[in-house]
Amino acid sequence: MDERQLYLQLNAAQALLASDKVSTLSLYLHNTAAAEAGAPWVEQQLTDLGWAQALEVTPWQKLAFFYQKVKDLYD
Mind listing the pLDDT tens digit for each residue in 19-67? Predict the structure, then answer.
């Protein structure tokens, strides 16, 4: 399923995959500039829920190495 996205409820995805696990949870924002600024807020929410050690928050800019390099060429 690399390079593909499917939007559905978590319980439906788990039933489809015959698993109760979650390997990746993506949060999509309308304003991409808010992603990096919003990461600390998400981390705080996870801490408040007691999930911080089990999950990692990574803004998309840190995952998009190729995008950043091409963008830097034109800036």
Answer: 998 888 888 788 877 877 888 998 999 999 988 788 888 887 787 777 7
Question: What pLDDT does residue 44 have?
Answer: 93
Q: Please give the full DSSP string across 10-50, using - where no structure is assigned.
A: HHHHHHHHT----S------SSTTHHHHHHHHHHHHHHHHT
CA distance 39 to 46: 11
Q: Which two tokens stand for residue 55?
A: 């999950």
pTM of the model: 0.57
Rounded CA separation 52/23 (Å): 15
Calculate ∠ Cα 27-31-36, nearest 5°: 65
